[in-house]
Amino acid sequence: MRRQLTLLIGILAITVASIAGTVLWENEPLLGLDLQGGVSVRLIATQPADEVMLDQTVEIIRNRVDGLGVAEPEISRIAGGVMVSLPGVKDQDRALQLVGTTAEMRFRPVCNVFSSTGNQNTENKGKNYEAAPLASCAGGINGEVEPVTGISGLTPKEADQANNFVVLSSQDDPGARYLLGPSVLTGDALSDAGADFFDYQWQISLALKAGQNGIQAFNSVSTQCYFGSESCPQLPGFTNGRLAIVLDGKIITAPQIRAPEFQRDAIVISGDYEKEEAENVALALRYGSLPVELEAENTQIVSATIGEDSLDAGVKAGIIGLALVALFMLFYYRLLGLVALSSLLVSGALLWAIVAHLGTQEGLALTLAGITGIIVAIGVSVDSNIVYFEHLKDDVLDGRTARSSVDRAFPIAFSTIVKADMASLIGAILLWWLTVGAVKGFAFYLGLATLLDLVATYFFMGPIVKVLAKTDWFANHPKRFGLPAIGAVNESRSKVSSPLVETI
Fold first, then answer.
1. Rounded to an integer, what distance in angstroms lies between the CA atom of residue 58 and that of residue 77?
2. Please, which residues bridge with residue 108 across strands?
3. Helix, strand, or coil here: 124?
4. Cα–Cα distance for residue pair 152/207, rounded to 1 Å
5. In angstroms, how far is CA 8 from the centroid of its own chain?
6. Residue 128 pLDDT grade (very low, low, confident, very high; cuts 50, 70, 90)
7. Whole-angstrom Cα distance, residue 105 to residue 388?
8. Cα 25 versus chain centre, distance
9. Which CATH superfamily is 2-28+303-494 part of?
């Protein structure tokens, strides 16, 4: 008796403490994409990519999304691309732009600038356009080097290689075309990037790596541009050479270089940036460029309203199911049915505390599939109660008293319950291990709820029934607990056997 009271008081104390901790720390479940809205996009590589490249892409996108502050994103590799699901994203356009941006940065000297009106609707396949970094701009200016240009007069993506002379446009000066020399530095030289508000405008601050592959290479070209040279000439109207910073094939700025050397963390990209635009560029540069170029194949946007409707539907389904189960248990098992519902309440309270903690502290999202797993687990818990109660009824029907049946039935019933729950746990583990996305969430919450059912059964339902069995009320009124009356079985057996006695 003392052991049963200890187990009962212990599980109740843990349950109360869990709920109190949830309230005190203001933990609450983190809702997934289908319950709070968000965006899901399928990104496909524009060129063939192996698994290593796609894995690198997934990692870079994950870092960008973490920097954006999105909780519990789902980012996974798929055939030929990446699937990205971002729950609770308010600015969906910004998020999509961030995850799909290649963010390939190159530093190119400006060889020449000319109007876009002169060579429209012409195409030049180019010749002799590949050269080493800091190659002379003279060949490009006098026509000796002819960069590849499309019908728009700009170099197409396939010809925009690091060692090529290219013709690109600028977001600051869309009416001009820039002849740029080979890339002297890429985004691999960056160690960090950030967005800062300075001089009444948003700017992107860069920090380069130390050494030859970072600040030394940058200062080498800075010296050429500052004094003016064949590799970085002084163009008409400017006192110094210009260095273009190119992001994904478009010039974001092309400033004059006004010093021969710079500190590695004192390089600033200025421009007409909005706050979010500057932050997006900084995030993309901070975590490096994607090894493959991606394009959106399919985009699914889930509004917050649809998410709320899904949540309401899931909650209603759970409440209706629980109510029907409660009516059945109370009708069929009476006071034992009330014990079963109390056991469900204990396991449900523990489950809520764990889900709230994982959502707030660990960023684990609760999805509609997860709610489905919890609802299925309720059925598993009810099955556990039924197994025990039916064992009790069978023992009473065999002629034992209600009190003696309680002690005998629980070990046998609990062994059966463990075996049944293990089957559910094995299935949940396999689903969690082998699948992704919604199915993974279903498996996790099904497994978690099933484990808590075992805890509630052993530490609450078993002890409380044993404590009740010690009362005279339980012994004298078994029908109120959904058990057959004492002696009912003997009467039924005598009626069945009496004809046999008369025959003899």
1. 7
2. 244
3. strand
4. 35
5. 38
6. low
7. 67
8. 23
9. Multidrug efflux transporter AcrB transmembrane domain (1.20.1640.10)
Q: What is the pTM of this model?
A: 0.59
- Position 472: which residue type? D
Taking the domains of the chain in order of start, what are their residue ranges? 2-28+303-494, 38-101, 105-283
38-101 CATH: 3.30.70.3400
Amino acid at residue number 163: N
How far out from the chain centre does Cα 209 lie?
Answer: 31
Instruction: For residue 127, name the pLDDT band (cuts at 50, 70, 90).
Output: low
Calculate the average pLDDT of the chain: 82
| Whether 208 contacts 225, CB under 8 Å | no
Q: Is the distance from CB of 385 to CB of 461 less than 8 angstroms?
A: yes
Rounded to 10 degrees, the C-alpha dihedral 426/428/433/437 comes to: 170
* Residues facing residue 169 across a β-bridge: 177
Question: Which run of H or E residues covers position 251?
Answer: strand 250-253
Question: What's at 302, amino acid-wise?
Answer: V
Q: What pairing do the DSSP bridges indicate for beta strands 365-366 and 30-31? A: parallel
CATH number of 105-283: 3.30.1360.200
Confidence of residue 109 (pLDDT cuts 50, 70, 90): very high
- DSSP 8-state code for residue 187: G
C-alpha span between 167 and 25 (Å, rounded): 57
Instruction: Specify the length of the chain in residues.
Output: 504
Rounded Cα–Cα distance for residues 353 and 15 (Å): 9
- The token pair at 139 is 């060949």
